[in-house]
Amino acid sequence: MYTSLNKSAVTAPKLFQGLRIGDIEIANRVVMAPMTRSRADEAAGDIPGSELNIEYYRQRSNAGLIITEGTPVSPLGKGYLATPGIYSDAQVEGWKKITRAVHEAGSKIVAQIWHAGRVSHPALTGGMQPVAPSAVQQKGTVYTRNGKLELPMPQALELAEIAGIVDEFRRGAANAMRAGFDGVEIHGANGYLVDQFLRDGANKRTDAYGGAIENRCRFALEVVDAVAAEIGAGRVGIRLSPVTPSNDLADSNPQAVFGHLVEELNKRSIAYIHFVEGAAGGSRDVPGFDFIRARRSFKGAYIANNGYDREMAIDKVESGWADAIAFGRLYIANPDLVQRLKANAALNSLNFRTIYASGAVGYTDYPAMDVVG
Ligand code: 8OZ
């Protein structure tokens, strides 16, 4: 076989070059986005670490960084079926098997620590009423073992209860480090509990956690501070989605809220912010927040997500729009995504019906590309 590759004349796109994110060294700037796959052992107590779970993450360990599926910090923080938690010892033991496999394959992995807040149902929480900043019911339904049910009215958190939830995030982060993770990503996006405090569509509180922007940012920042004190700010990231309408949540002035939050995060020297640019899984063209301004003002790493393809990812990293790009759907369907992006190879298409199914189909059976040797 004849190859004419003059290696010295070819500079790899920055997307494929390494990066230091806080205290975490990653081998390339392709990130696997956090994605709920609902394949934990629910009967055993929402335990990860089955052979299939290990294989799924191992297959994708070509990413510079893997962000796990959202992992609830408590039983009450659960919002979907069969999501693996990070509050019990058995869960930590399960995650250990996954982090070991990912590290052996040369990648890095952070746990996305998560509390669903009002996006839940007693049928998912062992009978407990979901909690939220305020008693504001979300329009919509959730999937439970009893079928699809209307989202209930959440219980507004008492002022005295808030510190306990902050502490659950702290313990989730401590457990993540025990489980061998390289750090954590706080799930502050897509309409879940942290985001419910941030945005005034769900936060109607009149105490120190509601009203003024500084107050609505308080819960998020207390979580960041508690987690950073536990594991070090250089191992903490946060995912934010200033303008996504996901989970029936909106804010009257996202620029003001998230602009303030970014400034505060900057003071705390966390490793990264992971921005969902636009409507999660939908249009990138949603007004209300200036991502370029956030990128310029934040001195940590900026991970961009939402609808990126190969060309856009290469361009946006090359131009400095972002430090790294998180791919969701493409990573479900293409276990060897980095190799495919490098080779500009064809991509598998995603089967939407098996995203939240159980078993190997649509999970670990997407083929790697044929490598002609
Ligand atoms: C889709 C299905 C279940 C959970 C998010 C955690 O939107 C999620 C999620 C998305 O961030």
How would you characterize the overall build of this protein?
The chain is an alpha/beta fold and 373 residues long. The chain has helices at 51-59, 89-104, 159-178, 193-198, 213-216, 218-231, 254-267, 291-297, 310-318, 329-333, 337-343; strands spanning 19-21, 24-26, 30-32, 65-72, 108-114, 131-132, 141-144, 147-150, 155-156, 183-187, 236-240, 272-276, 301-305, 324-327. Strands 3-4-5-10-11-12-13-14 form an eight-stranded parallel β-barrel, surrounded by four helices. The protein has a two-stranded antiparallel ribbon with strand order 1-2. The mean pLDDT is 97. The structure holds 2-Phenylacrylic acid.
Give short descriptive properties of this protein.
373 residues; alpha/beta; TIM Barrel; 8-stranded parallel β-barrel; two-stranded antiparallel sheet; 30% helix; binds 2-Phenylacrylic acid
Overall form: globular
Q: Number of helix segments?
A: 11
Number of domains: 1
CATH topology: TIM Barrel
SSE-based structural type: alpha/beta
Mean pLDDT: 97
Low-confidence stretches: none
Small molecules bound: 2-Phenylacrylic acid
**Total DSSP E strands:** 14
Overall CATH architecture: Alpha-Beta Barrel
Ends apart, CA distance between termini:
10 Å
Helicity range of the residues? 25-40%
Short précis:
The chain has helices at about 50-60, 90-105, 160-180, 195-200, 215, 220-230, 255-265, 290-295, 310-320, 330-335, 335-345; strands at about 20, 25, 30, 65-70, 110-115, 130, 140-145, 145-150, 155, 185, 235-240, 270-275, 300-305, 325.
